[in-house]
Design brief:
It contains five helices and five strands. Strands 3-2-1-5-4 form a five-stranded mixed β-sheet, sandwiched between helices. The N and C termini lie far apart (56 Å). The protein has one domain: Chitinase A, domain 3 (Roll), CATH 3.10.50.40. By secondary structure, it is of the alpha+beta class.
Length: 148
């Protein structure tokens, strides 16, 4: 190895290759978003609504529908057919500490926690799943698409 190659190799080995905080930090969450969601509930998860599927059936259906959405199936049509919430299931939210921007927009804190936790991390056009959790997603599984 020539002296200049040896020096270059030593410099490369000694170089700081640790990712910088700016490179590894998650992108800041937006102040406002609009999402469309499809709620898959199960027996007893929705007060005042009769849902006959079991929790296991709901989990399976939610994952199948998420996969179909990610493969390009018409999400609005899926929401219309499958949601246990009201169609079209479109909600606008203001992030934590941000003033609500207009009528029909909700504070993030006013929604079930998983709804905002998933929605605010998505890019426009992406889908995410908020799985059932008695504390953060008590009504069932939310398949969420960020639309704005």
């Amino acid at each position: 190895m020539t002296r200049s190659l040896a020096i270059a190799a030593a410099i490369l080995l000694a170089a700081d290759t640790t990712p910088r905080a700016a490179e590894t930090a998650a992108a800041p969450e937006p102040e406002h978003i609009t999402v469309q969601h499809l709620l898959v509930g199960f027996q007893g998860s929705l007060p005042g609504k009769v849902v006959t599927r079991t929790r296991e059936q709901a989990a399976t259906l939610a994952n199948e529908l998420l996969e179909k959405a990610r493969k390009g199936e018409d999400f609005d049509a899926m929401v219309k057919q499958y949601t246990d919430d009201a169609w079209p299931g479109v909600y606008s939210m203001a992030n934590k500490g941000i003033a609500v921007g207009g009528s029909g927009e909700y504070r993030r804190e006013g929604m079930v926690p998983a709804f905002g936790d998933v929605g605010f991390k998505l890019k426009v056009g992406e889908y995410g799943l908020a799985p059932y959790d008695p504390k953060t997603s008590p009504y069932g599984w939310h398949i969420i698409k960020r639309v704005k």
